[in-house]
Amino acid sequence: MRILVAALAFALVCGVVGSNVAQATHPVTEKPKLALSISANPTTVKSGSKITIQIETTNTSGQSIVFRSEPMEYRYEAVVRDAQGNLVADTEHGREARRPPEQYSGGGFPLEPGKTTKDELVISDLYDLSRPGKYSVQVRCRGAKSNTITVTVVP
């Protein structure tokens, strides 16, 4: 009888450990609570021109999400790559923008479920896009990623 109880206890422990191992190897990824879509108009600009992207952020969760009223370069992280896939160098302003302010004294606003907010981000202020070529741009915010667009800089 003791052997049967020990065997059952061992099987139970192995089952629990096994299920934890299975969960660890297949983690549940939480779906982002935002949907991001970006565009640029125009998509072809002269070297040295300002390049602005438009960002639509939609709350896809079932609850209100509060955003701080802050500069867009703190709210959104742009990822800009050249035609070879290399990350583009930050401008001086871009380097500063990667360091969030030490104190935040502004207000905020809620983005209700299903609602969309529209913002603009001047990526040429953040990244060195002075050289002619094609650049891919994607934006991230709170775990969500946007579509990728291409901006062409001409001489």
Can you offer a commentary on this structure?
The protein is an alpha+beta fold. The chain folds into two domains: 1-29; 34-154, Sandwich (Immunoglobulin-like), CATH 2.60.40.2970. It is built from four helices and ten strands. The protein has helices spanning 2-25, 72-75, 92-97, 123-126; strands spanning 34-40, 44-46, 52-59, 65-68, 77-81, 108-111, 116-122, 133-141, 144-145, 149-154. The strands form three sheets. Strands 2, 5, 8, 9 and 10 form a five-stranded mixed sheet that branches. Strands 1-3-7 form a three-stranded antiparallel sheet. The chain has a two-stranded antiparallel ribbon with strand order 4-6. The N and C termini lie far apart (86 Å). The model is unreliable at 1-24 (pLDDT under 50).
Characteristics of this structure?
155 residues, three-stranded antiparallel beta sheet, 10 strands, alpha+beta, Immunoglobulin-like
In round numbers, the mean pLDDT is 82
How much is the radius of gyration in Å? 23 Å
Give the strand tally.
Answer: 10
What top-tier CATH class of the largest domain fits best? Mainly Beta
Count of structural domains? 2
N- to C-terminal separation? 86 Å
The CATH architecture of the largest domain is Sandwich
- The coarse silhouette is globular
Would you identify the regions where 5 or more consecutive residues have pLDDT less than 50? Answer: 1-24
- Biggest beta-sheet profile: 5 strands, mixed
Number of helices: 4
CATH topology of the largest domain: Immunoglobulin-like
Helix content: 10-25%
Tell me what portion of residues adopts beta-strand conformation.
Answer: 35-45%
The string of secondary-structure elements, in order, is: HEEEEHEHEEHEEE
Structural class by SSE content: alpha+beta
